[in-house]
């Protein structure tokens, strides 16, 4: 099991934070292009899932799986979007993404008077705590399965 990368978007689609751990394929596009592509895909999947769902989707979509990776998604009531890509063997990461929001983002960004909301995150404390949290997860492994 492994975690590839993590994105945090605001409600307007701006990538506030990005980190990667075990990503083996590097893209040929710029990071800004990748962020726009990811946000556009999340926006489209959310819309598609809510319109075609036969039941009321209180939580919206939480993840989707391709043949190569699994994308996990958590959205706060204020519109912050937490996105994590993992390998296929990883189960639901809903609780992990919620924990990143409630324990890390709230503690080290919201409660920090030096951090500007809706601006890219530059806090070294947040970066270090997130990295420490992710590396301690049982789903984290530095060995990537092909």
From TrEMBL:
GO terms in the biological process aspect are: endoplasmic reticulum to Golgi vesicle-mediated transport
Record bears the keyword Endoplasmic reticulum: yes
* Keyword check for Endoplasmic reticulum: yes
Enumerate the InterPro entries for this protein: Longin-like_dom_sf, TRAPPC
Chief location category: endoplasmic reticulum
Q: Kindly state one GO CC term assigned in the UniProt record.
A: TRAPP complex
Q: What SMART domains does its record include?
A: Sybindin
Q: Where in the cell is it found?
A: Endoplasmic reticulum; Golgi apparatus, cis-Golgi network
Q: Give the UniProt keywords, A-Z.
A: Endoplasmic reticulum, ER-Golgi transport, Golgi apparatus, Transport
Matching entries from CDD domains are given as: TRAPPC1_MUM2
**Which PANTHER family does the UniProt entry name for this protein?**
TRAFFICKING PROTEIN PARTICLE COMPLEX SUBUNIT (PTHR23249), TRAFFICKING PROTEIN PARTICLE COMPLEX SUBUNIT 1 (PTHR23249:SF16)
Question: Subunit arrangement?
Answer: Part of the multisubunit transport protein particle (TRAPP) complex. The heterodimer TRAPPC6B-TRAPPC3 interacts with TRAPPC1 likely providing a core for TRAPP complex formation.
Q: Which protein family is it in?
A: Belongs to the TRAPP small subunits family. BET5 subfamily.
Would you tell me the protein name for this molecule? Trafficking protein particle complex subunit
State the organism of origin.
Arion vulgaris
Q: Which gene encodes it?
A: ORF128287
């Amino acid at each position: 099991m492994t975690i590839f990368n993590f994105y945090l978007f605001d409600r307007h689609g701006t990538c506030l934070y990005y980190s990667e751990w075990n990503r083996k394929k590097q893209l040929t596009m710029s990071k800004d292009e990748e962020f726009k592509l990811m946000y556009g895909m999340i926006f489209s999947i959310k819309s598609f899932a809510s319109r075609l769902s036969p039941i009321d989707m209180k939580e919206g979509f939480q993840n989707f799986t391709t043949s190569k990776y699994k994308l996990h998604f958590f959205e706060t009531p204020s519109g912050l979007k937490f996105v994590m890509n993992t390998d296929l063997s990883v189960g639901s990461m809903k609780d992990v993404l919620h924990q990143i929001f409630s324990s890390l983002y709230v503690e080290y960004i919201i409660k920090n008077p030096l951090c500007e909301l809706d601006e890219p995150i530059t806090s070294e404390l947040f970066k270090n705590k997130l990295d420490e949290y992710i590396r301690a997860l049982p789903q984290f492994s530095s060995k990537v399965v092909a």
